[in-house]
């Protein structure tokens, strides 16, 4: 056991936690503790190693395969001759692994910072013991190191949750932590879960030629989305994958070419490989939080206030371990807030969770921000909605699109947008103007739907015209009425000039 080494700042978790060490914090003595992510126990957290980045690199390769298969519709004859899985995998991790190793070495070698590569647990107030489990740091594997900090940040993320019926079965299975490193593509795969991870991996593997079965206990895939989009996604998924909704595995055993899952409705499904994608639990257990005086919510998230402070003085938390949103852009935002707050205790910044957007990089892609139609109705708004088809704008014609939609939810009385939900190519980018309008309101509040549509140019004939048309299609007061008497300078009685429509 080592003596306790004292730091200005101790960070547990090298994902968004590592990004905390901004230039302003770099002069402080900082310890970063991390036990590694995924099967390689890599430094740098989920997003870099087993989350956002590699999945989207696989998604891109899947889309290339899909484009080749689909080319005939456009008069281009092409044949997908094969998929070199190992080449795809090795290209992706050949790029990611060196970044992870470089990040670890930088933290180990930089002035003022130290990397402790192992599992950390509180052993007292702002004091931790780290069981060193990984090589690559300065501490011997197997040793136990004690560190303490003036401030401690918990950024330990979340891990895949595995239903007991799978965990206890003894049948080999994968999660998002391991499935991207497999050596060979299986012929078939059963995905348990109907959320984001399931939707993205089902797309990747099916586009690369794997026969995919999806089993989810909800009545639709991507159940948390606006119901119209969730239904549209489920309908399209059924055309490509064998989708079992309202279904839960009650027994898992070896069978068929690999695994057999008996479902509660008496049917069964088989596949060569089993992928479990049934949610992620915060890494708040096995951290000794009770010893550190840190309270945890019933759902397992570390309890934080709007500034990121936990119940223990000088201990902060951010990202998946504490946030209501398990998203990297949210974890990054929270890290920026906490970094500021560590340096400016007299003027604390607050987390902004008002308009958190999200996207699902599946086939089709889905994006969402703000209230769903049902949420807006439940909240008592005078709701108006417009669902615009991609196929109704010029770029949608070019794409021969027949299935993609952009839906906006508005408040009839104020004319303001309450939410936007899109399903189709590039929806994660197309939705950004709505995120901006909601998040950066002018002095008179967010622009109305018609102001957003008519107060700016929309490049013609870009796909973004689908959003322009959706906004214009909302049954709200026309732009002229909303802007009547509008006088931005306070001097000019004239109305602002409206720009012409691109449609
Ligand atoms: C397959 C997948 C795809 C995703 N795609 C997207 C996406 O496209 N867009 C998006 O916004 N989000 C995506 N996410 C979610 C995103 O990855 C997470 O929200 C984000 O990475 C959380 O960051 P974090 O810093 O809170 O935690 P993490 O990045 O998970 O970092 C926590 C670190 O702490 C370490 N740790 C935990 N406990 C201890 C301990 N006791 N001692 C030492 N170390 C410990 C862990 O090993 C890990 O390295 C995806 C997630 C998955 C699983
Ligand atoms: N593109 C992105 O932003 C992205 C991508 C991947 C993951 N993530 C983040 O990771 C989080 C976790 O993703 P996830 O897909 O694992 O969780 P999730 O909460 O999105 O979905 C879990 C799904 O599994 C189903 N389920 C749970 N237990 C089941 C059981 N026993 N049998 C059958 N179905 C069961 C649930 O009903 C749900 O449909 C997401 O909430 C998201 O925030 C984000």
From TrEMBL:
The active site is at 460 (proton acceptor). GO terms for molecular function: nucleotide binding; oxidoreductase activity, acting on a sulfur group of donors, NAD(P) as acceptor. Its cofactor is FAD. Residues 483-503 are annotated as: Disordered. Gene3D superfamilies: 3.30.390.30, FAD/NAD(P)-binding domain (3.50.50.60). SUPFAM superfamilies: FAD/NAD(P)-binding domain, FAD/NAD-linked reductases, dimerisation (C-terminal) domain. NAD(+) binds at residues 193-200, 279. InterPro entries: FAD/NAD-bd_sf, FAD/NAD-binding_dom, FAD/NAD-linked_Rdtase_dimer_sf, Mycothione_reductase, Pyr_nuc-diS_OxRdtase, Pyr_nucl-diS_OxRdtase_dimer, Pyr_OxRdtase_I_AS. Disulfide bonds join 47-52. It comes from the Bacteria. Residues 356-470 form the Pyridine nucleotide-disulphide oxidoreductase dimerisation domain. Signal peptide: none annotated. Keywords: Disulfide bond, FAD, Flavoprotein, NAD, NADP, Nucleotide-binding, Oxidoreductase, Redox-active center. Residues 7-332 form the FAD/NAD(P)-binding domain. Binds 1 FAD per subunit. Belongs to the class-I pyridine nucleotide-disulfide oxidoreductase family. This is Mycothione reductase.
